[in-house]
TrEMBL record:
Annotated Acidic residues bias: 542-570
GO cellular component term of the entry, any: dendrite
Gene designation: kif21a
Residue sites binding ATP per the record: G88, Q89, T90, G91, S92, G93, K94, T95
Residue stretches of each WD repeat: 1065-1104, 1105-1136, 1342-1371
Subcellular locations according to the entry: Cell projection, Axon; Cell projection, Dendrite; Cell projection, Growth cone; Cytoplasm, Cytoskeleton
Coiled coil start-end: 366-393, 419-446, 841-875
Family assignment from sequence similarity: Belongs to the TRAFAC class myosin-kinesin ATPase superfamily. Kinesin family.
Alphabetized Gene3D superfamilies for the sequence: Kinesin motor domain (3.40.850.10), YVTN repeat-like/Quinoprotein amine dehydrogenase (2.130.10.10)
Record protein name field: Kinesin family member 21A
Length: 1393
């Protein structure tokens, strides 16, 4: 058991509870989806989260326990701490999962984590005791105690204390020991010895826990509960090498297991909590907020080195070990799948996702003696292994003391690898040989069968022949194997004879000499070598004794030095001879073993061959005897026909011929064997020559290896010398760097002292100088200017004589203030962005809650109508007519609910998108900006923060007072209205006594006041729409929606801005999608299916062009003709003839006279077959040609004839935007941007027909679809969904500049500021930015709209922006931006100086 530390991440499990019956009745949809086979959940449409464990709605309690907690209990027996805590919103199933809420009728499969863990704990204790008894070891001792704490309103309470009073302050204290562990003082600890006692303790504490009822949960936990089990274990140390006689060593292990049931995070507006419940909810959220801050500090890699706020809450203090400490931690995040709890589910998933990055330091909890014993045992095992390696020669120690592995070890490992490879190869070759042999046998047998079949043989003879052939092939294989073994043994014999001659033996033995003689000679040589070895050892021993006697007798060092040198040389020679003799002995012993083995194999082969020879001789003798017997029988037989005798004679002659052939074959084989014996001498000569070559090569190899070793030794010496030189140089360099740092510190200290002295001298001079008018004026300067004058930044000095005569600030002050102002602007923008994001998310949440309430009301109403319809159906067929309106009402309600569900899904998608944007924006490190500030800049920022806080507080107070005034007026109006209604009701009631119709009308009115009025959706309006209602609605809209252009009063901040909003055009009821203008007229298209024409001189709406089938997505004006685009149609209006539609152009090239495309009440975009959605239109400068982007092509129209002349093709995706310019030869240059990320250029000459391809494709493309294009002279700009802006050259047709992240969202519109080299861009976030057209440098930005900007248009003096907030804002650039450009250039020059 090791006690080292281990990095262990906090594991996170996600559990999705099933939908409640109430949620199903209210029509709540499931907004979560679990990926099959993956621990991943998808929230909404496409937002995915990945965790360690995933449990869907159908998961069981035992599955969760087995996956999350079972291993932690086993770890407690090994001395590891563990923690399991459940987190989630109220009512998400945390208490059910943990098992702290007890029910009388609870079933076994519904038991939570804690009861199962208790059962597992005591079962493991019993198993370990039984195992120790069976093995004959001492039984381990276990001591278990339990604690149950409750954190209620930031007070730690003891749930085991029955006399506790929640109103009194708790006396429980939280402390930290020397090792960083957390423990509590004053808590009741109960010793437990059985599972029943533990469950009784758990039940007692759970019943004492504080619970209450809220609107979201009937039995809601109002406090955080922590159930802790302490386990102390004394057992015998596990050891591999323990002697039988030694005493047993014991170790003490301790572990604690926290089961944490956190109270659910909740919103007061959803729980409806008031009074104490509200205070409890606030306390719960404060604790969870502190826990979230700790998780963020531990999980965020950029904040890991910063302070972890454990002390912000008692909850985080108690869980300090579990989060970032010594514990194996599992977090179970419980969520609801219903879309009603979408925001709570999203926050829980983000909370759990951060917890996955926490790293804990897990270590075994042992007593000090056990830790020391474990460390010593580990050290002994390591040293034993190292000693074994030294003994086996695996490790070596060089002359310089460097340890390394021996070459023999490396060579052995290589040979083992090669041996395994060869074995695999031999096995594969053997299998191949067997297969080939079987195939050959089959082929030969088939051939023999064919011959036998032609001769008229039977199947039995064929099978017998096949068996013989198979046996022959096996014998042949064995014969070849025996010959190969014989050849190998012969080579070994020759090699042994060569070795014997090499090591001083007799001359080369002839191969015909008997093997026994060779073995005898080898044994004799071995005896001689052993005798020589003994003599050498004896002489070494005598020399050693003589050396000792000489050292005892003679003490003169000078005389003995020479003798010792000579003796050491002789000793080295003897040792070398001894090593050679030992090597020879080993070789001779191996040679003897090989020869004996080969002799045994030869003897075995000889016996086999003799047996075969005897068998053949017996067979020949039997055959001869049979021949003689047959001849004798033929002579003695007197009876018998000639035919029979001839047949017998023929058979025997055939057998005789076969035997003669076999005899001939054997004789030929015998001759071949004799011939081979003759050639054996030649083979032996060749073999001897090859052996000599091999010996020579070995000598060469040894010589080369010696040279290589010498060269390696030289290289090693050179490398060590160079390393020493490098180390000395690095040491000198470190010394120089240290001296340099000391000098720099001294310099900074001297500069600081000098600056202080200079400030003191300056202050004394000012005090000594007489007061003048300039000084009086300088005293009246604002404080910020004085600060910048009196507190210059560090590192810049100035004297009082450098002041300007007019008392202006110095260059240093301007420079410091400019940097501080830039930092303040970045911080202010960041604060504004955060506020806007939170406001947007809050508004979206409010919209989603409103839609959820509407869906709940509609669902209830639908259930009532369905019940009423079912009641009518039970009455009989007579009530069918009465049920028809109910069926229509059910359909309308279903359509309404579907519409609201789609709206809820869109709202959730928008919230997810805003959250992602928020996460991207959070990457801006504000602390880094503040940390880099100097003292002067910090004072500047603090001053502005104070001013900002005062202004915001003042605005909030003014708004609050206005709200109170409006509330008072509203109450007064309600009182007045109620009084008037009451008087009117009494008057009508008096008249109703004489008029029964009026009485019935009053009764219906009273019922109508009690009912709930719901706002119908477009789907319900579609069902109950008639002509009279349409006419009334049109009249109402015409009365209310008369547009007007209102002036915008200039504010203090807008007067100095480079772009000022001067007017706002209001009148559309929905988002404005497009805009076009001249110097006198303004044209706007909207989602309300109208195009409005405005008079810029009078500021009034002139006319409204209605009757579009859907949204008006593009509008253009040319010579009293207005072109509006809706779906796949282009309407041509003549505004001179009271706004009459004279033509309708379609995307397919058809032309219709008059207004045949009527308006449609449906919001669904329906495009006829063969048509495409038209995204944008553009006119050439002459106004004679219209270009319409429909699908992935651009339709070309001749407006003089209102006829389609061709198409511009080449894009792979839909064309989203286009613009038209004119070249020098009067050709139209059409620039198109598509969803396929590419921009293409088309040259269109007048009168061109058919399909026209692009003349150029601009590279590199954007990373997403193109949203806007604008041309300025010989250049043009493009904005894309990838948030970037690119600048292109039309002449060279290449990219000049680009701004990758110009906005934080899609760049939806571009426009050129009139009369200035400036570009205006608008994004989907409502932000407007100004760019210098030459450098693409930022000139300024502002929040133009609260909603996405859809279009920008310009005339000779103003800019117009259309937005989703149903307005068109009119902007004016102040002074042509010349002052801004000059200021930016001057600032850059000052910064460079």
């Amino acid at each position: 058991m090791t006690s080292g530390q281990d990095d262990s991440s906090v594991r996170v499990a996600l559990r999705i509870r099933p939908q409640l019956a109430r949620e199903k009745i209210e029509g709540c949809h499931i907004c979560t989806y679990v990926m099959p086979g993956e621990p991943q959940v998808i929230l909404g449409k496409d937002k995915s989260f990945t965790y360690d464990y995933m449990f869907d709605m159908d998961s069981q309690q035992d599955t969760i326990y087995a996956a999350c907690t079972e291993k932690l209990i086993e770890g407690c027996f090994e001395g590891y701490n563990a923690t399991v805590f459940a987190y989630g919103q109220t009512g998400s199933g945390k208490t059910y999962t943990m098992g702290t809420g007890f029910d009388v009728n609870i079933e076994e499969e519904e038991l939570g984590i804690i009861p199962r863990a208790v059962h597992h704990l005591f079962k493991g204790i019993e198993q370990r005791r039984q195992a120790a008894q069976e093995q004959g070891c001492p039984v381990p001792e276990f001591k278990i105690n339990a604690q149950f704490l409750e954190l209620y309103n930031e007070e730690v309470l003891d749930l085991f204390e029955s006399t506790r009073d929640t109103k009194q302050k708790s006396h429980i204290k939280i402390h930290e020991d020397a090792t960083g562990g957390i423990y509590t003082v004053g808590v009741t600890t109960r010793n437990v010895s059985s599972e029943a006692e533990m469950m009784q303790c758990l039940k007692l504490g759970a019943l004492s826990r504080t619970t209450a009822s809220t609107q979201m949960n009937v039995q809601s936990s109002r406090s955080h509960a922590i159930f802790t089990i302490h386990l102390c274990q004394v057992r015998v140390c596990a050891s591999d090498n323990v002697s039988t006689g030694s005493m047993d060593e014991y170790e003490t292990l301790t572990a604690k297991f926290h089961f944490v049931d956190l109270a659910g995070s909740e919103r007061l507006k959803r729980t409806g909590a008031t009074g104490d419940r509200a205070k409890e909810g606030i306390s719960i959220n404060c604790g969870l907020l502190a826990l979230g801050n700790v998780i963020s500090a531990l999980g965020d890699r950029s904040k890991r080195s910063s302070h972890v706020p454990y002390r912000d809450s008692k909850l985080t203090r108690l869980l300090q070990d579990s989060l970032g400490g010594n514990s194996q931690t599992v977090m179970i995040a419980c969520i609801s799948p219903s879309d009603r709890d979408f925001m709570e589910t999203l926050n829980t998933l983000k909370y759990a996702n951060r917890a996955r990055n926490i790293k804990n330091k897990v270590m075994v909890n042992q007593d000090k003696a056990s830790q020391q014993i474990s460390a010593l045992r580990t050290e002994i095992a390591r040293l034993q292994i190292e000693l074994m390696e030294y003994k086996t020669g695996k490790r070596l120690t060089g002359e310089d003391g460097v340890e390394s592995f021996s070459d023999m070890f490396h060579e052995n490992s290589m040979l083992q690898t090669e041996n395994s490879n060869l074995r695999v190869r031999v096995k594969a070759m053997q299998e191949t040989i067997d297969a080939q042999r079987a195939r050959l046998t089959q082929l030969i047998s088939d051939q023999a069968n064919q011959v036998l079949a032609r001769a008229g043989g039977t199947e039995e003879i064929g099978n017998m022949i096949q068996g013989y052939i198979k046996e022959i092939e096996d014998f042949r294989a064995k014969l070849l194997e025996s010959e190969a073994v014989n050849e190998h043994l012969r080579k070994n014999l020759t090699r042994a004879s060569n070795r014997q001659s090499l090591y001083g033996g007799p001359a080369l033995l002839a191969p015909e000499k008997e093997t026994s003689d060779i073995i005898e000679l080898a044994k004799k040589d071995l005896e001689k070598l052993k005798k020589r070895e003994k003599k050498k050892k004896k002489s070494d021993h005598e020399e050693g004794e003589e050396e000792e006697d000489e050292e005892e007798e003679e003490m003169d060092v000078e005389d003995s030095s020479d003798d010792s040198d000579s003796e050491s040389d002789e000793k080295e020679n003897f040792q070398a001879d001894l090593a050679n003799i030992t090597c020879e002995i080993a070789i001779k012993q191996k040679l003897i073993d090989e020869l004996e083995n080969s002799q045994r194999r030869l003897h075995t082969l000889k016996q086999q061959y003799e047996q075969k020879l005897m068998m053949l001789q017996c067979k020949i003798r039997d055959t001869q005897l049979e021949r003689d017997r047959v001849l004798q029988n033929m002579n003695t037989v007197e009876t018998g026909t000639d035919d029979k005798s001839r047949k017998i004679k023929a058979e025997y002659e055939k057998k005789l011929s076969v035997m003669n052939k076999e005899l001939q074959k054997l004789q030929s084989a015998q001759k071949e064997h004799a011939r081979l014996l003759k050639n054996q001498s030649q083979y032996e000569k060749q073999l001897k020559k090859l052996q000599m070559d091999v010996a020579e090569m070995k000598k060469t190899k040894v010589r080369l290896m010696k040279q290589m070793k010498e060269q390696q030794e030289k290289n090693r010496m050179n490398e060590s010398r160079r390393n020493r030189e490098i180390a000395s140089l690095k040491k000198d360099q470190r010394k120089q760097e240290h001296q340099l740092k000391l000098l720099e510190a001294q310099k900074r200290q001297q500069e600081l002292i000098l600056r202080r002295k200079t400030e003191e001298v300056t202050a004394l001079r000012r005090q000594a100088r007489p007061t003048s008018g300039k000084v009086i004026r300088r005293v009246n300067v604002p404080e910020s200017v004085q600060d910048s004058t009196h507190r210059p930044p560090s590192g810049r000095l100035y004297s009082s004589g450098n002041a300007a005569p007019n008392g202006t600030r110095r260059t240093v002050g301007i420079y410091s203030t400019r940097i501080a102002r830039n930092k303040w602007q970045s911080l202010e923008r960041r604060i504004t962005d955060v506020i806007m994001q939170r406001m947007t998310i809050s508004n979206m949440e409010a919209d989603m809650n409103r839609l959820l309430k509407q869906r709940e009301e509609l669902t209830k109403r639908k259930e009532k109508v369905i019940r009423k319809r079912e009641r009518l159906d039970r009455e009989g067929p007579e009530a069918e007519k009465a049920a028809l309106p109910l069926n229509e009402e059910v359909d309308a309600l279903t359509a309404n609910i579907d519409y609201i569900n789609d709206s809820i899904a869109d709202c959730q998608a928008n919230i997810m998108q805003m959250e992602e944007t928020k996460e991207e924006g959070d990457t801006v490190d504000i602390s880094a900006v503040i940390g880099s500030c100097t003292l002067t800049e910090a004072r500047f920022l603090l001053d502005h923060f104070m001013s900002m806080a005062i202004n915001k507080g003042l605005q909030a107070a003014q708004r609050e007072s206005q709200v109170k005034v409006m509330e008072g007026r509203l109450k007064q109006t309600e009182i007045t209205s109620a009084t008037q209604n009451q008087l009117l009701f009494h008057m009508l009631k008096e008249k109703a006594e004489f008029n029964p119709e009026l009485d019935a009308l009053l009764g219906n009115a009273l019922q109508g006041n009690d009912s709930v009025c719901l706002e119908p959706s477009p789907f319900s309006r579609r069902k109950t729409y008639n002509k009279s209602q349409a006419a009334a609605d049109r009249a109402k809209v015409k009365e209310i929606k008369q547009g007007i252009i209102n002036p915008v009063p200039p504010t203090k901040s807008s007067r100095s801005a480079t772009l000022q909003c001067v007017h706002v055009a209001e009148g559309h009821s929905k988002a404005v999608l497009c805009v076009d203008c001249t110097d006198d007229l303004l044209f706007t298209g909207s989602k309300d299916r109208t195009c409005k024409v405005w008079n810029l001189v009078t500021g009034q709406e002139i006319m409204s062009l209605a009757g579009h089938p859907n949204n008006v997505v593009s509008v253009r004006y040319s010579s009293s003709l207005v072109f509006t685009v809706s779906t796949s149609y282009i309407k041509v209006w003549d505004i001179r003839d009271s706004a009459k539609c004279i033509r309708i152009l379609t995307s397919s090239g058809q032309v219709t006279v008059g207004d045949v495309c009527a308006s449609n009440t449906s919001r669904t975009v329906t495009i006829p077959a063969g048509e495409n959605q038209i995204n944008q239109i553009a006119l050439n400068p002459n106004g004679t040609v219209l270009y319409a982007a429909a699908g992935n092509s651009v339709r070309v129209w001749d407006l003089r004839r209102f006829a389609s002349t061709g198409k511009l093709t080449g894009h792979l995706g839909p064309v989203m935007c286009l613009t038209v310019d004119q070249s020098g030869n009067n050709q139209d240059l059409v620039i198109t941007g598509s969803k396929d990320h590419y921009i293409k250029l088309f040259d269109v000459t007048e009168g061109s027909l058919g399909s026209i391809g692009p003349t150029h494709n601009f590279e590199p493309p954007h990373y997403d679809g193109i949203e806007s294009l604008v041309v300025q002279g010989d250049i043009f700009f493009s904005g894309s969904r990838d948030n970037g802006i690119k600048k292109w050259d039309l002449d060279r047709k290449d990219l000049l500049q680009q701004v990758p992240n110009a906005h934080r969202d899609w760049v939806c519109a571009l426009g050129v500021v009139p009369g200035s080299p400036a570009l205006l861009s608008g994004c989907r976030g409502g932000v407007l930015k100004l760019w210098h057209t030459d450098t693409l440098g930022t000139l300024g930005e502002l929040k133009g709209h609260e909603s996405p900007i859809n279009g920008i248009s310009t005339n000779s003096s103003h800019l117009f922006t259309a937005s989703d907030d149903r307005t068109v804002k009119i902007w004016r650039a102040r002074g042509g931006l010349d002052s801004t450009l000059e200021a930016v250039d001057n600032a850059d020059e000052v910064a460079s100086n």
